[in-house]
Amino acid sequence: MKIFSNSDVRSLFLGQVISQSGDSIFRIGLLWMVLELTSSKAITGAVAMASFLPSLLFSLPAGAIVDRFCKLRIMKTMDLLRFFLMLLIPICYFIGQMNIFLLVVITFLSATATTMFFPARDALIPEIVNDDELGYANTLIQTSWQSAVLLGPALGALLLYYVGQIHLFTANAVTFFVSFVAISCIAVPKKPFVQKNTSALQDMKEGMDYVLKTPLIRSIVLITVGNNLLLMGPAIVGIPIFVKEILHLNVEHYAWAEASLAGGIIIGVPIMAWISRNTKHMGKVLLWGLIFDGLTHCPLYFATTFKQTAITLFIHSIFIPMVTVSRTTLIQQSIPRELSGRIFSIIYMCVIGSTALSVSLTGLLAEYVAMNTIFLYSGILCASAGVWGFIFGIHRH
Q1: Shortest CA distance to 287 belongs to which of 223, 347, 230?
Q2: Lowest mean pLDDT among 210-224, 323-337, 347-361
Q3: What angle do CA 42, 46, 49 make, to 5 degrees?
Q4: pTM of this prediction?
C-alpha cells in the first residue's frame, strides 16, 4: 500500500496497534481486580466510569494545550506517563499496598493522559502526510483500534494463563513504552511553546466559537453526538443483552458476536482505503456511512439464531470505517491547523460523553423494551440522521 512507504505513518500505526492492544488487556485486568478487591458490582461500575470522566472534564483544556505545544512531544509524554502509571499497579501489589483507591486514581490519571493523546494524534496526521493521502492515512490510524480488539483479548488470555492476572498490567506498561519508541521515530519539527496574549480560557472559547459558527463542523459535531447516542449503547451493552435474553445463549456466543464485529471492520478497512483514494467528497462518504451504519442494525429485529446475528453484525461493522475515517478526514481538510487540537478535543469529548450517556440510557430502556426492538428503532433513527445530512448539504464537502 502506498501510504506504508511513509515511515512516519508506519511508526504511528504500529504504536497505536500495540498500545491499544494494551488498553484491552488493561480493561480485562482492571475490572477483574476490582471485583476481587471489593466483591461489589457498584464499585466496579464506578471504577469503569473513572475512565470516562477525564474526557468530559479536561477535553477542552487539553485541546488548547495541544495547539500551543509540539503535538509529537505531547504524545510521547503521555505514553511515558501511562507507562509509569501502569507499572505502579504490579509494584504496589507485590509490596502489599494495592487498594481500590489507588486503582481509581491510576485509572483516572491514565484516562486523562489518553484525553491529551488522541487529539494530539489526530492533529498530527496532517503534518506527516500530504492532503491527498489524509483519507488513506486515517483509514489505517483510526482502525488501529479494531486490530487491537482482535489482538488484545487473545494476548490477555495467553498472559492470564502463563504469567497471571497482575502481569496484565505489566504487559500494558510495556505496550505504552513500545508506543513511545515507535512514535519517537516520527520526524516532525519540534514546535516550541507559543507565546500568546490570550489565556487558556480564551483559547478554549475560540475553539468552541469556531465549532458553533462554522456550519460544516457544527453539523459534524451534531451528527457525531446523534450517531453515538443512538448506536453506541446498543453496540456496547445491547449485544450481550441480545445474546442472553433474545437468543438465550451464553458468554461464549457473546465473545463470538464481538469477534464478528471486529471481523467486519477488518474487511471495511481496505474498502475505505479504496474509497479514500478515489473520492474527494468525504461528506458524501460520511452520510452514506451513517445511513448504512443504521440500516444494517435493523435486521437484528428479525434475527432468531446466532448465525443470523453474527452475519448481521459482520455486515454492519463493514460500514463503521466509512463513518469514523471520513469524519476525521473531513475535519482535517476543513479546519485551520492552529485550531486542530481544540476541534479534535471537542470531537473526542462528544464521542466519549455521548457514548457514556448512550450506554446508561440503553441499559435503562432495555428494562422495559425488548433489545431487538431497540436495535430496530435506533438503526432507523441513525439512518435518518444521514438523510438529514444530505438535506443540510454536508455531501458537497
Answers
A1: 223
A2: 347-361
A3: 140
A4: 0.75
Cell of 62: 487539553
CATH superfamily of 1-185: MFS general substrate transporter like domains (1.20.1250.20)
Dihedral (C-alpha) 103, 104, 105, 110: value to the nearest 10 degrees? 90
Which part of the chain is CATH 1.20.1250.20? 1-185, 199-397
The rounded distance, in Å, linking the Cα atoms of 32 and 26 is: 10
- For 84-120, letters b (16+ CB in 10 Å) and e give ebbbbbbebbeeeebebeebbebbbbbbbbbbbbbbb
Sign of dihedral through CA atoms 140, 144, 145, 150? Answer: positive
Q: Whats the size of the chain, residue-wise? A: 397
Give 185-226 pLDDT, tens digit per residue. Answer: 887 755 555 556 677 788 888 888 998 999 888 888 888 888
CATH class of 199-397: mainly alpha
- Interval 128-137: pLDDT, tens: 887 777 777 7
For residue 4, pLDDT beyond 50: no
Q: Cα separation of 195 and 315, whole Å?
A: 50
